[in-house]
Amino acid sequence: MPAGLIALALGGFGIGLTEFVITGLLPEVAADYHVTESTAGWLVTGYALAVVVGALGLTAATTRLPRKPVLVGLLVLFVIGNALSAFAPVYGVMMAGRVIAALCHGAFFGIGAVVAADMVSRERRASAVALMFTGLTAANVLGVPFGTFLGQAFGWRATFWTIAAIGVVALVGVLVLVPAVRETRAPSLVRELSAFRSGQVWLSLGITVLGYGGMFGAFTYIAYTLTAVSGFPAAAVPWLLIAFGGGLFVGNVVGGRLAARSVDGTLLWVLSGLTVVLALFAIVATSPVLTVIALVLMGAFGFATVPPLQTRVMSHAEHAPTLASGANIAAFNLGNALGAWIGGATIAAGLGYTAPIWAGAVITLAAVALTAVAAGAAARRRPARTATGSIATA
User: Fold this and answer.
1) What is this structure's pTM?
2) Predicted confidence (pLDDT) at residue 38 exceeds the cutoff of 60
3) Under a CB-based contact definition with an 8 Å cutoff, are residues 269 and 220 in contact?
4) Are 275 and 368 in contact (CB under 8 A)?
5) Comparing C-alpha atoms, which of 47, 342, 138 is closest to residue 221?
6) Are 102 and 51 in contact (CB under 8 A)?
7) Engineering a disulfide at 116: which of 43, 128, 326, 370 sits with its beta carbon 3.0 to 4.6 angstroms away?
């Protein structure tokens, strides 16, 4: 694999850390700002919604610009946002910092996924995208637990200052290792928008919203579930997140390899497995041992969806992949916002800290149904296209 993929993964590590580390620090942040759990959860939801805006708005605005300088500018925005979060004296400023950092998230992964795919041959695209997203899994395996431990030991602000420093390192990595890819065709926003004429692109975006939203809805309030339901002390949360991150890493690798064989088949099996895992997790959450097992499986099945989800939307927008790729990153985070909002609503309604996990299972089940519809439509269209091509050839 090209060295540039490592640089993209490094940028993904920093951005992924920003997105996920807040879940392990929600109790500390809520206590510092004297807000409720559901209000603190808006730091997750607000971030996710800002990602949606950035993924669509910034990707569209930078379509005519060379991709490497755009990636560099996005990482500068990332550093500024995290420094503001670390400094924030009040909740509103903290939210502003989260929003600024989030604006770069979707565009970076959307454009970066296209750059990663262009670095390799067609049959290795899913693996290249998976390698880029390894930065996200590394953020969960190493970064999030360490960031949670750092925040508990030295205050949550220390975590965000550290993330800002990581952003600077990622910026240097992209400058040095990512090649300046020459565009084969002049960039065109009109051509990029044409991808949204495809019904399969819209179905892919819907699958992403539901499939990822179910897992993230359960994960957003996981610190409360682990401490209030499973009985773990707060000091154990970082170590439990390491186990969760290990599942993410395995799922990302396996999902990338399986997607190289069959994208839709992989999604059907993985999303079905995730639905079952979430339902079982909600049932066994009072058992510490079974909770650890369920946490690992939730991470594995949840992140095994990422390579096929990103590859699917790019494959159905083959001639205009950049904005479609960014839109799918927006869909990931729209799912995050949806899951976090529903999870927070179930807690506010007094249904307990396992309610977000049950809600996640229902959302993921809807993703299974939508995937079956999309896969069936794609399968019916494929023979028709093949027959048309044969007639034209004759």
Assistant:
1) 0.70
2) yes
3) no
4) yes
5) 342
6) yes
7) 128
